[in-house]
Amino acid sequence: MKKKLVIMGAIMMSLALSGCRPSDEKLAAVESARDALETVRQEAEDTYLDVADTSLRSELDQLGVKVAEIEAIDFTKMSNKKIDAKIPEINSIIQEYNVVQQKLTGIYTGEQEVIAEQAKNRLIDCYIINKTGLKLSSIVLHDITADSYSENLISDGEILADGYTLMGIKLPVNADSSEWEFIVTDDVFTQRFFTCESLKDISGNSVSLSFAYNVETDSGTVSFGGYFSD
Q: What's the domain range around 87?
């Protein structure tokens, strides 16, 4: 009788232990979900490294904490019921990563477009010679083709007097453009438009841009020359 009780106890203990272990099907399902989570985490982290924007770093760090908690779980010691409750939690984190990934992809695309646009531009190292007979407070390059404007090439609050030279100018030239003009403002805020040759024809560095103004025709022109060219 005692022997039967011992055997029955062993059987009950075995059944109890087996009830705490997951089935192969459940274990495979939760491990697959965890693998999917690691995949989306790695994709998001890789994309983050490809962008300059760091605004999503905190979101990635918060999700990383959740992933670490999932990775620390030994699913072989969990019941089917507990695994069933854990899989939706993993899928929810995956969805959060998908949302962040969409944001990162948008940022990456935007940054690449900016880089591509910037690659179309080259900066011409030049200087401006004022031969207008006017005191100039502002010189702005107008890209007529792209309808874009540079910043004031003269520092705000400064005046470029007649006969003086403005050094250290970096003139942005878009490779897709074909027509430009300079918008010149004098010290009494009169604005004039100066025609210029094609900036694509400029080659080399230290190019002079000579600004001239005809009072009789009220017209201005810009001509290009070499270093300190007259």
A: 2-118
Among residues 186, 178, 173, the alpha carbon closest in space to that of 139 is found at: 186
In a domain, 230, yes or no: no
Going by C-alpha positions, the residue among 186, 29, 50 that lies closest to residue 105 is: 50
Instruction: Dump pLDDT digits (tens) for 75-85.
Output: 999 999 999 99
pTM: predicted TM-score of the whole model, two decimal places: 0.57
Per residue in 161-190, pLDDT (tens digit) is 999 999 999 888 888 899 999 999 999 999
In a domain, 220, yes or no: yes
29: left (phi over 0), alpha (psi -120 to 50) or beta: alpha
Give the C-alpha separation, 37 to 57, whole Å.
Answer: 18
Give domain status of residue 109, yes or no: yes
Whole-number CA gyration radius for the chain: 35
